[in-house]
Design a protein that fits this description.
The protein has helices at 11-19, 23-45, 48-65. By secondary structure, the protein is an all-alpha fold.
């Protein structure tokens, strides 16, 4: 799914690319952070379906509202 030419030196550059709506940056972000986030949400909710919904909502909100984050 990821383009191997898309390499981010740090998370600030990654956030900048997401803000610029570069789709590959969101794929990279999802691949990098979703396993840990999903695990945390599963432990908090004790419900895999709810965890999947929360994870999806989190990444969708990040994509749509990245400019609002400090």
């Amino acid at each position: 799914m990821l383009d191997v030419d898309f390499i981010f030196k740090d998370d600030l550059q990654l956030a900048d690319c997401i803000e610029e709506k570069k789709l590959q940056s969101m794929y990279y972000c999802y691949d990098k952070y979703s396993p840990a986030l999903y695990g945390m949400i599963c432990r908090m909710t004790n419900n895999k379906h709810v965890a999947e919904e929360c994870l999806t909502a989190t990444f969708l909100k990040s994509w749509n509202e990245i400019a609002a984050f400090p």
